[in-house]
Design goal:
Elements: E1 2-4, H1 5-20, E2 27-34, E3 38-45, E4 48-52, H2 54-69, E5 78-82, E6 86-90
Antiparallel strand pairs: 1-6, 2-3, 3-4, 5-6
Length: about 90
Protein backbone atom coordinates (compact mmCIF):
# COMPACT_ATOMS: atom_id res chain seq x y z
CA UNK A 1 0.00 0.00 0.00
CA UNK A 2 1.19 3.51 -0.71
CA UNK A 3 0.05 6.79 0.81
CA UNK A 4 1.01 10.11 -0.73
CA UNK A 5 1.85 13.62 0.46
CA UNK A 6 -1.69 14.62 1.45
CA UNK A 7 -2.18 11.55 3.61
CA UNK A 8 1.24 11.92 5.24
CA UNK A 9 0.37 15.53 6.07
CA UNK A 10 -3.03 14.40 7.39
CA UNK A 11 -1.28 11.79 9.54
CA UNK A 12 1.03 14.41 11.05
CA UNK A 13 -1.84 16.90 11.56
CA UNK A 14 -3.96 14.32 13.36
CA UNK A 15 -1.01 13.13 15.45
CA UNK A 16 0.05 16.62 16.52
CA UNK A 17 -3.54 17.75 17.15
CA UNK A 18 -4.07 14.82 19.47
CA UNK A 19 -0.81 15.47 21.31
CA UNK A 20 -1.48 19.21 21.67
CA UNK A 21 -5.21 19.04 22.34
CA UNK A 22 -6.17 21.18 19.36
CA UNK A 23 -8.21 20.67 16.22
CA UNK A 24 -6.38 19.14 13.22
CA UNK A 25 -7.30 22.26 11.26
CA UNK A 26 -5.12 24.26 13.71
CA UNK A 27 -2.01 22.35 12.58
CA UNK A 28 0.08 23.23 9.52
CA UNK A 29 2.74 20.87 8.16
CA UNK A 30 5.52 21.25 5.61
CA UNK A 31 7.44 18.10 4.67
CA UNK A 32 11.10 18.22 3.70
CA UNK A 33 14.06 16.02 2.91
CA UNK A 34 17.54 17.09 3.97
CA UNK A 35 20.70 15.16 3.28
CA UNK A 36 21.93 15.64 6.84
CA UNK A 37 18.66 14.82 8.66
CA UNK A 38 16.64 12.71 6.24
CA UNK A 39 12.88 13.24 6.16
CA UNK A 40 11.61 16.00 8.43
CA UNK A 41 8.53 18.14 8.87
CA UNK A 42 8.12 21.64 10.17
CA UNK A 43 4.87 21.85 12.11
CA UNK A 44 3.06 24.97 13.26
CA UNK A 45 0.53 24.69 16.08
CA UNK A 46 -1.07 27.87 17.37
CA UNK A 47 1.71 29.99 15.89
CA UNK A 48 4.56 27.92 17.36
CA UNK A 49 6.97 26.04 15.14
CA UNK A 50 8.39 22.59 15.83
CA UNK A 51 10.56 20.26 13.75
CA UNK A 52 9.80 16.56 13.56
CA UNK A 53 12.40 13.99 12.53
CA UNK A 54 11.75 10.83 10.53
CA UNK A 55 10.95 8.69 13.58
CA UNK A 56 8.18 11.16 14.51
CA UNK A 57 6.78 10.93 10.97
CA UNK A 58 6.82 7.14 11.13
CA UNK A 59 4.97 7.23 14.46
CA UNK A 60 2.31 9.52 12.96
CA UNK A 61 1.92 7.22 9.94
CA UNK A 62 1.63 4.15 12.22
CA UNK A 63 -1.20 5.76 14.17
CA UNK A 64 -2.89 7.05 11.02
CA UNK A 65 -2.87 3.60 9.42
CA UNK A 66 -4.45 2.12 12.54
CA UNK A 67 -7.12 4.81 12.96
CA UNK A 68 -8.01 5.35 9.29
CA UNK A 69 -7.45 1.89 7.78
CA UNK A 70 -7.69 -0.34 10.86
CA UNK A 71 -4.26 -1.74 10.00
CA UNK A 72 -1.61 -2.35 12.64
CA UNK A 73 1.74 -1.55 11.04
CA UNK A 74 5.18 -1.10 12.52
CA UNK A 75 7.94 1.35 11.63
CA UNK A 76 9.94 -1.42 9.99
CA UNK A 77 7.09 -1.82 7.48
CA UNK A 78 7.07 1.86 6.45
CA UNK A 79 9.44 3.39 3.91
CA UNK A 80 9.24 7.12 3.20
CA UNK A 81 10.56 8.38 -0.13
CA UNK A 82 10.31 11.43 -2.38
CA UNK A 83 11.06 12.87 -5.77
CA UNK A 84 8.75 15.75 -6.74
CA UNK A 85 6.20 14.38 -4.25
CA UNK A 86 6.42 12.52 -0.94
CA UNK A 87 5.03 9.03 -0.36
CA UNK A 88 5.21 6.21 2.13
CA UNK A 89 5.14 2.56 1.13
CA UNK A 90 3.60 0.27 3.74
CA UNK A 91 4.43 -3.43 3.51
CA UNK A 92 1.75 -6.02 4.22
Amino acid sequence: MRIHTDEIINAVCLHMAERRGVSPSDVEVQLAWEEEYGFTAEVWVQGRSQYLVESNLLEAIEQYMYKEYNRRVFRSQITIDADEDFWADIED
